Amino acid sequence: MKAASHNPVPTQANAPSFMSPAAHRHETILAEARPGASHGLAWDPIRASVDCWSLYSRLGDIWWTRAAGGPAIAAASRNRFDALVAFARARSPFYRDAYRGLPAGRLDPAALPVVTKRALMNRFDDWVTDPALDLAGVTAFLVDREHIGERYLGRYVIWKSSGSTGEAGIYVQDDDALETFDALMAVHLDPARFAAVHAWRIAARGGRAALIAATGDHFASIASWRRLTRNNPWIAARCFSIMDPLPQLVAELNAYRPAFVASYPTMLSLLAEERKAGRLEIDPVSLWSGGECLPAHMRVGIEAAFGCPVVNEYGASECMSMAFGCNEGWLHVNADWVLLEPVDDEFRPTPPGAPSRTVLLTNLANRVQPIIRYDLGDSVVVKPGPCACGSPLPAIEVEGRHDDVLAMAAPDGRIVRLLPLALTTVVEDAAPASRFQILQTAPDRLRLRLAARAPADRQAAWRALEKALRAFLDRQSLPNVRVSLDPGRPRTDRRSGKLREVIASRRDHA
Fold first, then answer.
1. What's the Cα-to-Cα distance from 256 to each of 234, 266, 349, rounded to whole Å?
2. Sheet strands (E) in 10-118
3. Are 8 and 288 in contact (CB under 8 A)?
4. Between 298 and 28, the higher pLDDT residue
5. In the Cβ-directed half-sphere of 87, how many Cα atoms lie within 13 Å?
6. DSSP H or E stretch at residue 118
7. What are phi and psi of 365, to 5 degrees?
8. What DSSP string describes 318-359?
9. Fewest 10 Å CB contacts: which of 45, 47, 228, 468?
10. Residue 334's closest CA among 349, 345, 347, 319?
11. Domain boundaries, position 10
């Protein structure tokens, strides 16, 4: 899903952890997480003990609130919303200005103005509530990729979102926010019951967890993964790059034999095909999906191929855990800690059963960088009435990423499949903040559309992108594929109004 922005991420309470973009070869994270490791990721037993206590306290609060039903969930959400708004007005100059003229005390959420990524990033120093945080210092920290997963100023975990829309975002998390989202993920998974059912299979595979993602920059997935392994150095966890050719990835997974695998739906679908063909021999206990839309038919196919469940998560760089999938195929919003408002073009509420134009996000867990009525850009449908699964949480469907897996013809006639998130990672890494669209026009042809910009800047971006795409295609055994610059601009999908970044020629409805 779009908002997840390359996202699969279970966290510290439930072993595997995922979410991000950018490139790098696979790496073993466990070694970095052990005491004495480099890059500031050494295990701190005191901090780990405090984190564990805080986590279980938060877990208990969530469990009791939800056990009390819908009214208790709504009351908790309302109280947290009021407290967050009051805190933001007092501590964030950005929100103080935005809410100037509004009455004091409890406000209807609909009375507050909508905010955008661009507006917030343009006033980053005024947005954050800790004066020690400033854009210059945070940007300098993010420049060095050796710092991925380290704590900034000793107390904050920082990541960024992709700049594919022309607007990159930087997001700051404190321990309180991170522990809240650890607890939200854990309460959905019920790890104790899961372990009781699958203990022997988990033990047989050494409890190994694998993340397959893009891992070479400060994105939420890899930052979260490194935090997980730092806090739990006994976990056997390894990260694999989506940039690697599929045969290489299959061979490495066969050698590692993980009990848990987390990745994007398109990658899990490709791995399901490899398993059905007999080339992938792993037998995981559970799969974790995020970062893209997971259609029902794709989920059924993945679960049939692996013989295990797929946990579907809806999250974003702005808010790690917004909703989790249920057995009925719906996503249940963590409504006690997350406020999602489906709205139309005029930011008026969309009725249940109707698709929204966008959705407004309020992250009730993060006070260091308040996100209140933030235009997330996803289209959602709220389920009318309760879900048959019995959850008291509201249920939604999300219209997220629907980019295509491209099937390209190699010189020897083989078909090489390219993941959309691998292609977008190449572009985002080579030309940050470029709005783009990749079109497959033939089995050995790709065209790139770039947003309008000054001719000199457009040509400079194209030279960098051509070189990066060429290197990626060569590594995928596709030296014959030609890449050209399309004279047109990226076009939104006629039906959804969204920008699809990777489109196979047979499905180019732009």
1. 17, 21, 48
2. 27-28
3. yes
4. 298
5. 18
6. helix 117-122
7. -100, -20
8. TEEEEEEE-TTS-EEE-TTTEEEEEE-TTSPBPPTTS--SEE
9. 45
10. 319
11. 2-399
Name the residue with tokens 């260091």.
368
Same domain flag for 446 and 336 = no
Query: How many independent structural domains does the chain possess?
Result: 2
Q: What DSSP designation does 102 have?
A: S
Do 261 and 15 touch, CB atoms closer than 8 A?
no
Number of Cβ within 10 Å of residue 361's Cβ equals 23
The Cα–Cα gap between 470 and 450 comes to 17
Q: Are 5 and 194 in contact (CB under 8 A)?
A: no
Q: Report the percentage of the chain scoring pLDDT > 70.
A: 81
Cβ-contact 281, 254 below 8 angstroms: yes
Same domain assignment for residues 410 and 391: no
pTM for the model stands at 0.81
Assigned token pair, 128: 């954050």
DSSP of 13-28: GGS-----------EE
Q: In this structure, how many other beta carbons lie within 10 angstroms of the beta carbon of residue 325?
A: 21
Cβ-contact 408, 505 below 8 angstroms: no
CB 47 within 8 A of CB 319: no
Cβ–Cβ under 8 Å, residues 156 and 147: no
Which residue would you say has higher pLDDT here, 98 or 230? 98
For residue 478, the domain's CATH number is: 3.30.300.30
DSSP state of 76: H
Question: What type of residue is 177?
Answer: A
For residues 302 and 273, give the distance between their C-alpha atoms in angstroms, rounded to a whole number.
8
More confident: 235 or 132:
132
C-alpha span between 348 and 114 (Å, rounded): 11
3-state secondary structure of 316: strand
The 10s digit of each residue's pLDDT in 39-68 is: 344 545 545 555 666 777 888 899 999 999
**Cβ count within 10 A of residue 487:** 8
Mark whether 67 and 172 lie in a shared domain: yes
> How many residues comprise the chain?
510
The Cα–Cα gap between 306 and 395 comes to 27
Three-state secondary structure call for residue 64: helix
